[in-house]
Amino acid sequence: MRSYDIRQGVMRRVRERFPDIPVLEAEERMDEAAPCFIVKLVRGERERVGERRYLAQAAVEVHYYPAVLDASVHDTADALYEVLELIEVDGSLCRGTSWKHEIVERTLRFQVQYELRLTRSREDASKMNSMKQEGRIRDAEPRDVRS
Description:
- This protein is α+β, with helices and mostly antiparallel strands.
- It has a single domain, classed as STM4215-like (2-Layer Sandwich).
- It has helices at 3-17, 72-83, and strands at residues 23-25, 36-48, 53-65, 86-89, 92-104, 107-119.
- It has a six-stranded mixed beta sheet, with helices on one face.
- The model has no long low-confidence stretch (mean pLDDT 82).
C-alpha cells in the first residue's frame, strides 16, 4: 500500500459522486477555476505490530472550492460523509474513520482518516546449493558381551 493508492481511492469516489466537478491532487492545482475538489494526504504513519505486520494510518483532506458560497457547501459535506466511508485500496475496501469538516474562507475542508493493516512479503532468502552428507561407522572397542 502506498499513499498514492489511498489518494487515488479517495479521488475515484469523489469523481463518481460529482462527475461534473474536477477532482485534482494538491500538486496539480494551478489557479483552477471554481468549482473544484483538491485532494491531499496531510499525514501518514505506520506502526510495526508484528514481525512483518504494520498498522498504517493516512489522514486525507478534501478541499471544495464552490463557485459561490451558498447552502450547497453543507450538502456537499454531507455527500462526502457518505461517499468516503468506504474506498478501494489495492483491490480491498478500506473504511474511513474520524470524519470532520469545516468551512474556512469560502472553502469546505473535509478530513477523513483511513487505517489499514499491512503485511510485508517475505524476503527471498538464498537457498543452499547442495548439502553433502558423509557418513561412516567408527570403529569402537569391542564390548564384553556375555551370554
